[in-house]
Specification:
Number of strands: 2
Shape: elongated
Strand order of the largest sheet: 1-2
Strand content: 5-15%
Order of helices and strands: HEHEHH
Oligomer: single chain
Helix content: 55-70%
Number of helices: 4
């Protein structure tokens, strides 16, 4: 029979393996979502933000005017990069779920196939590809 020390070693290794897979899946899913999101203005693509523990709470309303749009796009890119860095550097199983949020008001319609640039269900497809890739 295994002793407590051996069981602890196995559990730690399993946790490490799981955390690494979750990180890989998150990075791949985020990249897939950005690439697969239909693009007219780029607003929906720039709003995929990873976070740990709860969904990101960014306003998804597109800004008015070119200067505001450019500033907001930089802020979204920064939020996405910050979320990615947080997942890679700090994610541990006890912290809970990882979310990749998109708060634009029309993201559901895009995922239902309202754009000819991407099929319905592109969000699920992007995530499934990331999961499959992590275990192949």
């Amino acid at each position: 029979m295994a002793d407590a020390g051996s069981i602890r070693i196995v559990l730690n290794a399993l946790n490490e393996f799981t955390e690494k897979r979750i990180k890989v899946i998150t990075l791949d899913a985020h990249a897939n979502l950005v690439e697969d999101t239909p693009r007219r203005t780029g607003w929906a693509r720039s709003n995929w933000v990873p976070s740990i523990g709860s969904p990101a709470k960014l306003d998804g309303t597109p800004p008015k005017g070119d200067d505001a749009a450019a500033a907001e796009a930089r802020q979204r890119a920064s939020a996405a990069q910050s979320g990615i860095a947080q997942v890679v550097a700090a994610y541990k199983l006890p912290l809970g779920r990882i979310y990749i949020s998109n708060n634009v008001p029309y993201i559901t319609r895009l995922n239902e196939g309202s754009s000819k640039q991407a099929p319905a269900g592109f969000v699920q497809s992007a995530i499934l590809r990331a999961v499959r890739s992590a275990f192949s």
